[in-house]
Amino acid sequence: MTPRAVDVNGLVKRYGTSVAADGLSFTAGRGEVTALLGPNGAGKTTTVEICEGYRRADGGTVRVLGLDPRDQALRARVGVMLQSGGVPTGARAGEYLRLVASFYAHPIDPAVLLTRLGLDESARTPYKRMSGGQQQRLALAAAVIGRPELVFLDEPTAGLDPQARHATWELVEELKASGVAVILTTHHMEEAERLADEVVILDRGVVIANGSPPKLTGAERQLRFRARPGLGLDELLSALPPGTIAKESPAGHYVIEGDLVPELLASVTTWCASHGVMTEDLRIERRTLEDVFLELTGRELRS
C-alpha cells in the first residue's frame, strides 16, 4: 500500500517541564488537505516542525511519505512555507524564486507563480521592502514551486487582503486536485471549513477531535439572535418544547438548539415580545467549525 502523506503515532515532545506534544496521533492522506487547529500553545507549531524534520521527537513515531522526517530524500518531495518567510531580506522576489526553482528538476515557471499570486509588480523589489502580504505570498510561491508531493502551509493567508486570500485558497484547491497533500495550520475557521478534507483539533499537546468539517459540525441547525444581555433563559426554556437547549455566549448573543420547526421559532419570538425583548439578527443556521472549536477549547484567551 502507498504510505499516507503523514503518519503521527504517539508523538511526545517536551521542553523542560513543558509538554508540547503528549502522545499525539493523527494521519494525513495523499491528495487531501488536513487542517491543524488549536489555541496558542496547543502544540501545532512543534508538531509541524517535527514533521518537517526541523525538530526531533522525544517519543512516538512520525513518518512523512513513508520516511523519517529527517531523511534527505524528502527534500525534493516536500515544500515548506514558514510563517517567518525565511527569505534573505535583500533578495529580490523574482531572483529568489528563480534561485529556488533551480534546485528542482521540474519546477513551476517562476513567472507563472509571480503572476498567479499578484507579485508581477514586485518581481524586482527586495524582500525587506515588500509588504507583509507580499512577503507571505512569496513564501507560498517558494513552497510550491518545486511541485512537491506534500506541502506544509503555516498560516498561509495571515495578513492577506480578501483578493489575495481567495487567490491562495484557489491555489491550495488546485494543489489538492493535482494530488498534492497539504498540511495547513490556520486560525481562520472559515479557511479550514472551506479547504480541509480532515480537521485535527489540538489542545495542550493532544488531539481532542478530528474528522471532516461536516462530521465535526454535525447536521444540527441553530436559532441565533442578539438581544440585551442576561435574559432569563430558564423562563424562556419553559415556553419551549422539552429537549430544547438555550445558551448565551458571549453576552447578548443567544443560541437555541433543538427541533427547529416553525412553532419553536414562533414561541421564541412570542416570548421575546411578551417580555419586551427586542431581538436583532435573528437567523437559523448550521453549527460552524468555529462553534465546535470554541466548545472544545474554551473561549478564554491564553498567553
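the 2nd protein, sequnce then structure:
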Amino acid sequence: MRYLLGLDIGTSGTKTALFDEEGNTIKTATYAYELFQPQVGWAEQNPEDWWKACVNGIKDVIEKSNVQASDIKGIGLSGQMHGLVLLDKKCKVIRNSIIWCDQRTEKECDYMTKVIGKERLIKITGNPALTGFTLSKLLWVRNNELNNYKKIYKVLLPKDYIRFKLTNTFATEVSDASGMQMLDINTRNWSEELLKELNIDKNILADVYESVVVSGHVTEEAAKLTKLEINTPVVGGAGDQAAGAIGNGIVNEGIISTIIGSSGVVFAATDTPRFDKEGRVHTLCHAVPNKWHVMGVTQGAGLSLNWFKRTFCAKDVEDSEKAGTDVYDLLTKKAAKSKPGSNGIVYLPYLMGERTPHIDPNVKGAFLGVSLINNHDDFVRSILEGVSFSLKNCLDIIEDMNVKVNEIRISGGGAESSVWRQILADVFQYSLTTVKASEGPALGVAILAGVGVGIYDSVEEACSKIIKGNSMVYSNTDLKEVYSKVYDVYNSAYPKIKNI
C-alpha cells in the first residue's frame, strides 16, 4: 500500500495526517502553539513554533502508525494564508510572522490603491488592497522596520517556510501565492508591473508552481529530525482554503463549500476568473490546474464562539470538564433552547474587522437589541446566527457573480454542531450536504501530492474516488420569513455602527 502525508499549518496548531491512497485516515497528530498580539488588531506567530509542531507531528504519525517511511510516496503542504515570513541571507527568520488576521496595514493599503488604482489591482490580483494580505504587510515592514526590510533575502508564506525546512527549496504555488497580492492571477505568475511600480525586488519572492508540481525533496537533515525517508517528494500544496476545498471535493463549478473554522468561508470553483467589481469577495487561483475560485470570508466565525467561551463561559467550561464533555457541545445545546432570532439579539461578528462584504479592518463587533428578557442561551444562539448571516452575505455576492449553485457542502469545526448546521441551512434556505472533512486541508494536499507523484491521474479523478457526501441538512421553509426579517436587521446594522 502506498501512503501520502498532509501537513496543515493552521493558526491554532499544525495537523499532520497520514492517508492511504484510497483517502482513509491512518493516523493524525496535532500540536498547538501561541498567537501573539503586541497591540490591538495585531497578530503574529513564531515560524519556529510551526516547524517544531511539524517535526513532532510527522514523527508521531510515522511511529504510531507502523507505516514504513519508505511507503510514504509524497507530502503535501497546506497552511494559513497571507502570512509574512522574512528570511535573511543566512536563511534565519528576521522577525515573527505577521499572520492573516493582522489589521495594522491600513495606510499601506491606501498607498497601494493610490499607486496602482483599485480597479487595476482587482484586474491584476483579483482583489482590492487588503490589510490581511501579504503585500501590505511587506510594505508595513518597509515603512516601520527599515532595518528588518533591508535584511530580507526571501519572503515566504507559512507553509512555504515549512517546505524550505523540509527541502531547502524556496518555492510556492499559485493558490497561496495569489493571496499575497503580488501574483497576476490571469497569467498565474508574479506581476512584474505591480512589483516594479511598488519598488519591490522580484528576487525576494520564491519560484511559483502549479499546486500539483513536485517542488522539492526531503533533505538528509530534515529526514533525521522527522524520520521521513530522504528524497521523499514534496508537492506545491495549497493555501488552507483551496486545500480544504479539495478535501471537500470542490473542484468543479456548481459545487459550493461553506467552512466554519476560526474564520468562515464560502468557496466556489470557477472555470474562468470571475471578479466582483467592488472586491468584496476574493478571486484567486485554485489549486486545480487551470481553475480559479471565488471566496467570501468572515473573519470571526468559530473565533467568535471561542472568544465568547473564553470571556463569558467559565461556568460552562467547568461543567463540561467535570462531565468530560466538549464545552462547545454544551454551548450549542444552550443555543438550541433559544428561539430563531435569539429573542431579538443580533450579533455582528466583527471581532477582527471584516472582509466580506465590508472590507473594513476597523469595524468592531456588537450585540444589538439586548433587553431584560434575554439570557445566556440567547447570546450563544445570536453568535451562531450572526456568523451564519455573515456567511449568507458571502453566498449572496457569489450568486450575483453568476456562479452556479447546485450543491452546498458544509464542513469545519463549527459544522460538527448539528445546531449550527441547521441554523445555517435555515438562514441560507438551501439544503446542505455534510462532508466528513475533519482532515479537510490535510487530505486536500495529500490528494495534490498523490497527483504530483502519479498515484492519481488528476485532482478531479482523485476527488470523485475519495470524497463522498454524508447526511443532508434540510432547510426549514417555515423559518424563511423569520430569518429574512432578522437578516434585514443584520444588514442594516453595519452603516449605523461602522464609525463607533
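The first strand starts at residue 3 and ends at 9. The radius of gyration is 22 Å.
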